[in-house]
Design a protein that fits this description.
The chain is α/β, with parallel strands linked by helices. The protein has 4 helices and 7 strands.
Length: about 130
């Protein structure tokens, strides 16, 4: 198991533009923690000079909304598509998303989430594969 450590929640750059309201509701139902030390750790990676969330955006937002200043994280050791993450982080920055709290006003229903986020990501992946040929 990778080493788990605490980090200031505002120091981690999101790599996702929207939060699913349905998923947020489910995470809130199972969120009983009032201490960052007891929360399931979130995966992060270094992208250039920044630390980014590679997953767990909904859990991170729930922690933020609960008033957490720090969250437990670990270095994600999965082999990720860095080109895709660079694009997603660029999208976030272009839309003013620089910390998890910036996603609190970007909670959308399932249909919107599918169109605004999932379809956009699939299109980006398709375009990246097509351009590699």
């Amino acid at each position: 198991m990778p080493e788990v450590f605490l980090i200031d929640i505002d120091e981690v750059q999101p790599s996702q533009l929207y939060i699913s309201a349905e998923k947020l509701r489910n995470v809130k139902e199972h969120f009983h923690s009032r201490k960052p030390e007891t929360m399931e750790p979130l995966p992060v990676k270094r992208l250039g000079s920044e630390i980014i969330f590679t997953d767990g955006h909904t859990r991170a937002l729930v922690a933020y909304l609960a008033g957490f200043k720090k969250v437990r994280v670990y270095w994600d050791e999965d082999d990720l598509d860095w080109g895709a993450y660079e694009i997603c982080v660029k999208w976030c920055k272009e839309e003013g998303i620089r910390s998890i709290g910036d996603l609190k006003d970007r909670i959308v229903g399932p249909e919107e989430y599918e169109i605004l986020w999932l379809k956009r990501c699939r299109r980006m992946q398709y375009d990246r594969r097509r351009n590699k040929l």
